[in-house]
Amino acid sequence: MAMRNAARHKRMKLKSEINVVPYIDVMLVLLIIFMVTTPMLNSNVDVNLPQANAKSLQDKKNPVVVSVGADGSLYLTLEGAKKEPVDAATMQAKVAAFVQANPDISVLVAGDREGKYDGVYQVLAELQQAGVSKVGLMSQPPGAGADNARK
């Protein structure tokens, strides 16, 4: 009878091991999914931002400059002419016509330091709708005062 109790005791012993192989498989599948999908998460508006110590652009022609004021007002400067206040529809129409006539001309956006980013972003979207393929953002070199930017 002692033999039966010993055999029964051996069969009833519990295993205290955890099988982690399925967890490793799930982790590897998730890793592969994230590695494949991460490069696809890009923004739709491509903008070339200047570096802090970037040299100024040397262009043969004067660029088209769209300025966004601190209050969101728009100003347009075509080929070095005087800065004129415009609304969004007029700016879009004039820039589209000008870029169609001169496809290799530079289009730059200048935003006021105290202005909201939303105004600059709206101008970038409107320029994209106008058919402008490359837009640059104007910046001020480090060390230049605010007085030089407003002249």
From TrEMBL:
<keyword id="KW-0131">Cell cycle</keyword>
<dbReference type="GO" id="GO:0005886">
    <property type="term" value="C:plasma membrane"/>
</dbReference>
<feature type="transmembrane region" description="Helical">
    <location>
        <begin position="20"/>
        <end position="41"/>
    </location>
</feature>
<dbReference type="InterPro" id="IPR014168">
    <property type="entry name" value="Tol-Pal_TolR"/>
</dbReference>
<keyword id="KW-0997">Cell inner membrane</keyword>
<keyword id="KW-0812">Transmembrane</keyword>
<protein>
    <recommendedName>
        <fullName>Tol-Pal system protein TolR</fullName>
    </recommendedName>
</protein>
<dbReference type="InterPro" id="IPR003400">
    <property type="entry name" value="ExbD"/>
</dbReference>
<keyword id="KW-0132">Cell division</keyword>
<comment type="similarity">
    <text>Belongs to the ExbD/TolR family.</text>
</comment>
<dbReference type="GO" id="GO:0022857">
    <property type="term" value="F:transmembrane transporter activity"/>
</dbReference>
<dbReference type="Pfam" id="PF02472">
    <property type="entry name" value="ExbD"/>
</dbReference>
<comment type="subunit">
    <text>The Tol-Pal system is composed of five core proteins: the inner membrane proteins TolA, TolQ and TolR, the periplasmic protein TolB and the outer membrane protein Pal. They form a network linking the inner and outer membranes and the peptidoglycan layer.</text>
</comment>
<keyword id="KW-0472">Membrane</keyword>
<dbReference type="GO" id="GO:0015031">
    <property type="term" value="P:protein transport"/>
</dbReference>
<comment type="function">
    <text>Part of the Tol-Pal system, which plays a role in outer membrane invagination during cell division and is important for maintaining outer membrane integrity.</text>
</comment>
<keyword id="KW-1003">Cell membrane</keyword>
<keyword id="KW-1133">Transmembrane helix</keyword>
<dbReference type="GO" id="GO:0051301">
    <property type="term" value="P:cell division"/>
</dbReference>
